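hey all, quick one before standup. I had two proteins in the batch that finished overnight and I want to keep them in one place so we stop losing track of which output belongs to which input. First protein below, input sequence then structure tokens straight from the run.
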Amino acid sequence: MMDDSNRRQCLETGIPSFDVLLGGGIPRRQTLIVAGNPGCGKTILCSQVAFLAAARGLPVVISTVTSEPHDKLVDALSGFSFFRRELLGEKLFLMSTYASLKKGAKEARDLLVHTVRERGAKLLFIDGLRAIRDLWQDEAKLREFLYELGIGLSATDCVGLFTTEYPLEKLMALPEATTVDGIVSLSVNTRGARRQRRVEVVKLRGRPHLPGEHLMRIGTEGVEIFPRIETQVPSEQDFVPKRHRAGFGLPELDGLMDGGLPVQSTTLLAGSMGIGKTLLAAHFAAEGARRGEKTLFVSFFEPPAALLARAKRIGLDVQEELTSGALTLVHQPPAEVEADVLVDRILREVTRQGIQRLVIDGLTELELSIADPERRRTFLAALSVHLRTAGVTSLFTKEVSKIAGTELDFSDTPIAILGENLLLLRYVELRGRIHRIMSILKMRDSKYDGNLREFEINDAGIRVLAPMRSVEGLLTGQARPVGGSAAGESR
């Protein structure tokens, strides 16, 4: 949120996430270029800012620089929800400067400044600086035009917003880059089959802003921007962990952890395919909801109906908690959705509901949705901090690749390193039988029982058994009895 002094110094764009990138909005009396190749979304972004400003009662002037009729621009924008035809004319004035541009720089500048002053405009949007460059073929003339226009707009307390069809690398070598106060670059990146729009505030005179590229999408509502969570990590300077526990509602398991997971901690629940990770996570969510803690369960694999049916088969009925609103189930099918979008939805829901427990069932899918592998560690670290400072106790499930075997490696799982707690579920083979075992491998700054335990899942629920003391090699998946004793006998 902007304070009053910041609001007075800026023109809010009406797109909250864009204002976050800009450090509060477009500084008053400044000029800003939005650059990028055709199809990046420049005209849509700037038009959205213009219409939203007009909707707030601010007079706006939009200038086209070609001989094309305004109907073409209006028709192109009419499909977006920010478009309001009733604003055209009085609050949002469309004009063409093509004839004045053909006469010269002074004539075009005088027309624009006069129109802005006459209408008391607070925003001037010129769509297409490149067309002006191509028309004049004179860099000195263009530089003088932008410089004099900037002075005229500043004198009338008006923001200048311009688009140009140059990629950032080309723009930075042109006079426009040094003449304007700010530069925003739009681009389209390709990663495999994915095409992703990105936005970056490259330059903004006299104001701090979020660095680097950020995800941008275009939908029916217009442009939506998702600032990288790594650039907005809350301070943990005054964070003091609470001493309370968040249990699973399974007495034997909670007893191994001195009552449950430490609240406001991050836990990785890793295990083989089909071993019971989701059901154990469901117990954690259900117990939180039953204690009156707002709980969110996000599944990448199973829709709510299927998850509820599976839980009910082991005696876990959460219909009452769902009806009361204490428990929320969200299904996010694996698809080409960027992690920034997924996490934005989750964090919004955390804030909206005051979530205290969060389960993300399918960490691998979240990791894969982070297009840049080098970003995964910092992304998940930032997510962990966001959740912790919001008072959330989070549990992530992850499938390990081998059902049984000697290899056990979490080096490719950043959350296993960054998270405070690590629980492992694994199959072991002993004398021709497959057994389920669990182990607490790590609980940061907390007491826990590190003994390996066999556990069972049946119609009666999940039951943790006594320690398996008479067997060795359990974590390798290939157990060996000690002294002739076998699992299922004396442990």
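OK second protein, same deal, sequence then tokens:
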Amino acid sequence: MRWTWSRLPTLAVVLLVCVVLRMSIRLSTDHQPASMLNQRWFESLRHLSANTTRTDRQTAKDIVNGRKFPKVLRTAGRRVFEVNCEAVLRGDLEEITKGRELMEKDGFVRGSNISETSYIKLTMDCEKFKDDQGYRSYILSAEEERFPVAYSILLYKEVEQAERLMRALYTSRNVFCLHVDMDARPEVHQAVQGIADCFPNVFVVSRKEYVVYAGFTRLQADINCMQDLMQRNNDWQYFINVPSQQFPIKTNKEIVQILQIYNGSNDIEGLTGNRRLEHRFKFRYIYKRVTKKQIKPNIYKTNYQLVDPPSNVTIVKGSAYGVFSRAFVEWMLHSKAARELLDWMRDVHSPDEYYWATLQYNQNLQAPGSHYSGRPDDKPWLAVHAAWGGVDPCKGKYVRGVCVFGLGDLAALVHKRHLFVNKFHLEYQPLALECLEEWLHNRTAEPAHQPLNLTYYRKLPFINTGRAS
């Protein structure tokens, strides 16, 4: 907005009145929570804006939205007191050892420990829940407002971890689809539904799946969310699927800036050659229940070879997770070739690790967002970083060949160029996740102090350098 010298006196008066109002509210509400003070502060600003010129009204509106003075809503500071997170993130071995020893002690209780029953009770008062959990303190810049992102969050029992993940990504413009495994306990379903009911931009998927490890329903769960998101919201630009064990290492604003550079390109992992694990898709896999009481079946390999995949495609392996443009999602849901390949994938082991990559790297399918023509293995994949056994260092522990990160991993993780890191377990070195939360919160509070260098992303070989998609 362009300002002229003639308007400065008027603006000065507006700001002076705002300061006086803020001080008077604090003096008269010594025992009220900060959230209520902010609410009364904003209400006073709105009343003031009704009696000013259009320019001054816009100024007041910008203040309310956190654009002119974002620190009114969120300030940086220490949030974890059992350990010095700043020292941990510097790689201070003494502080890391202190934190590990503390967590190994009998009787150690992590700072935040909210059960499913507690979530059910807390979400009966949505306004208080949002205040207490910090959902009102996000900073929404004009750039983020114009570029909403859609997420699916898959969970089985980790309600608190899923809620913390959503909170880290939350803005009023982003939209969230929560998929709870159909086999989860009733309290988990009820707790997640309670959380979703508190937000207009959060919902539980309309069709839940019994998610079988390495089975087709794992892939179907994400597609169900994609379908619901396409029907519910017309604004989001990208879709990102995450499990509850992941956590972002970029702020929402940084994610938006990176996705804008992608300009409609997808970020999907691709592996070829021996890395494809051909036995997973050369032979047919079937599902069997060992006992009659067993709800979820087990998956078994047969000696029957699968027919060749449709559309003359070459199977490419990748990750179940990725960054997908809206155009890609819409095409996938309606393309005949994509639907035929999806049906073929029903007999494949871990189809979620083959479907997205195969769609992306078969140029004859002309999938939207596929702007990379080189060898898939050579393309940088930045959706999520995971540490694999025998390949990457891990200061935590390995579970199924993947590192569950601990305090000692954080110093390296925060310097990764990825959007997310995978994975954390709240029951294993919980201070690791809490320190990462503190770090991300403070980056969100004071982004000007730690700006993200976008040069690397602008030089990526898979971005769309043409006109806007």
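Flagging for whoever picks this up: The CA atoms of residues 396 and 406 lie 4 Å apart. The radius of gyration is 24 Å.
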